[in-house]
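Journal club prep, notes for RB
We'll compare a predicted complex against what the paper describes. Inputs for the pyridoxal-5'-phosphate case:
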Amino acid sequence: MAPLHCSVYFDHNATTPLDPRVLEVMLPFLREQCGNASSRHELGTVARQAIDRAREQVAAAVGVQAVQVVFTSGGTEANNLFIRGAAAGLKPGRITISAIEHPCVVGPAQDLQRQGWNLRRLKVTRDGVLDAADIEHALAEKPLLWSAMLANNETGVVQDIAAIAGRARDAGAVVHSDAVQALGKIAVDFRALNVQALTLSAHKIGGPKGAGALVIDKRLDLRAVLAGGGQERGLRGGTENVPAIVGFGAACDIAMSRLSGRAARMIALRERLERGLHSQGAVIFGEAAALRLPNTTYFALHGIHGEALVIGLDKAGYATGSGAACSSSNDAPSSTLLAMGIEPELARGAVRISLGEGNSVEQVDGFLQALAAVAKRLRGLQAVAV
Ligand code: PLP
């Protein structure tokens, strides 16, 4: 099928194109290798072995044993599995999450609140970093569950989870981090992060949509959310999505093989992009944070609506994001930016560029030219409207 239109793709934090090498590995499992991994015949055995291999590949990407990987349908399900599954073994108490979590962490945490849990949302600074004083307040409340993301999907700001998680565990919490955006962009090591559970997703690293994992400490008391045929050691019932799991494993291998080289290339491209954005007067959110994902730039141009800019840029051939893909259907400013104390008017202007392997210097330069033209046109339209 021919693509509908050919844009330069700058929205890799929303999803990445499927890596052709991943597709190759998946194809036999979409065609002839149709076995159910629970079946005892040869086709079933081939499927089981393929899942076992993928489990090792995913485990290797974050430095754990294969037995610690629980495959899910993606990051959303993994986050739900942690929050609901860890809470199921506890009496209601305090759950602490950050103010900038993805909706698939916020939603289940709010469900716990309705069941009698106390929910605290950790504040962030204007740079999008977890607020040190608020962490101290939260620790003093003796939380039972604690979830803070490693890297934010909008700003790309990376938190010092290793230090925070160690403190939260000492305070008695079961600690989780959503590493969906970090995997494949920066090093992610389960043990070094000090967490007991970690969420991953395949489609952010060149893998297929609909596969992810919750990586867990073997001693974690986790209850299944989806009961079924006992798959994933009883932690996630349902016939395994073999092609997607196999693709996830292959994508992990590829993502890990050139991590530092790819990061260096992304940083060089992003610096070029941000120099150009500054020269057009853009505000870059989270820019002063100690660490940001190499591929992410979140910016606004004063007086220009982000949605209008994204649409104008799309017409000019550049696919960008306005805030989080999952919540960009409404006009409310990004809750992440509001939590950072960004004025709503400026937050409404937010546009996210998230670079990927296929992007080039020429594309960045072309984008900056297109941005200047689209912004000029939008400002002109506003002047006429006034
Ligand atoms: N967590 C973060 C930080 C994300 O950015 C996303 C996807 O946008 C998810 C979780 C959800 O992952 P999935 O799309 O695999 O359900």
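Talking point for the session: Residues 81 and 337 are 27 Å apart (CA to CA).
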